[in-house]
Amino acid sequence: MTLSLGTKKAIDLVVFLFLLFMGAVSILVTFAIVWVLLVDTIRFFTHPDGGGFPTSLIRFFTETQWTPTFYEKKIGIWPLLNGTFMIAGISMVISIPLGLLVAVYLSEYASWKVRESVKPWLDFLEAIPTVVYGYFALLFVTPILQKFFSLFGIEVQGMNALSPGIVLGVMILPFTASMVEDAFKGVPQYLREASYSLGASKLRTALFVVLPAAKSGVLSAYLLGFSRALGETMVVAVAAGMYPQITANPLEPVQTITGYIVQVALGDLPFNSFEYLSIFAAGMLLFVITLLFNSIAVYMKSKSVGY
Questions:
Q1: The CATH number of the domain where 294 resides is what?
Q2: 87 is a domain residue
């Protein structure tokens, strides 16, 4: 049956309005999340237990202890930032070289059949629940690290930053490797052929021709991976510990911003208390940091010339 022109226009209008509504809902949800964070963050910084505004804001960025749930309240965010960036940094030390190797292999060496066989397994790693990764870090990786470092007389705490950092690096590997591979695929084939014609090997071509040509996409991929590592929750909540401190030793327990949010959210603190509102202040800072890294990644991606 052939539809009339008026019916087709009506269907197009309904589809357009539906898509417009769904797009508006996603935008409104985003603004609602930001609004809730902002309102409760303001309530935290104006709360008398923190000294009121602007004293609490100054303390937030100048104190070096984080104990808002204690009787003597210290609200310096630096211990949580220390743990967050330490674990995310360790994860990138694992993810960057492994992701680059995987991307080079899949893009430059693997046949189509091998590529289509390997990529589902990478996607499978991404589908594993993060709580499983957390207990894997706690019950498998940590004992191995303890045995290894004991050979050198070094003690590794049961909760530490190194174990979740390593596991988190493996967890975000499919994400970073896939994005780096996509960046490599965007490099024109004639650049590779020109390199091969000069006698360069595949590895040399990949590292000195393809990688520099795709550097904007590669850097944006790793910035997005770093942002994802910053916001990871269950791995660090299970394996990193709940001891906020400023330390450069990854073998000691630390606490991240997300780990602290989990600790308070699962506790029995009164709703809208100063202690409860502290998770919104920490969450707002994490939101701003990840937004900054994501914005830089998008900007760098947009600066890529043709690929």
A1: 1.10.3720.10
A2: yes
Residue 66: strand, helix, or coil: strand
Segments of the chain scoring below 50 in pLDDT? none
Q: Read off the DSSP letter of residue 71.
A: S
Q: For residue 95, what pLDDT is reported?
A: 92
Residue-number span of the structural domain to which 23 is assigned: 5-46
Same domain for 42 and 134? Answer: no
Q: 282-293 in b/e burial notation, b at 16+ Cβ within 10 A?
A: bbbbbbebbeeb
Q: Which residues contact 10 (CB under 8 A, 6 or more apart)?
A: none
Give residue-wise pLDDT tens across range 234-255.
Answer: 899 999 988 899 999 999 999 9
* 243 close to 255: Cβ distance less than 8 angstroms: yes
Q: Which of 187, 180, 189, 176 is nearest to 217 (CA)?
A: 180
Same domain, 30 and 179: no
Residue 204's CB is within 10 A of a number of other CB atoms, namely 13
pTM of the entire structure?
0.88
To the nearest 10°, the Cα dihedral for 213, 214, 215, 221?
180
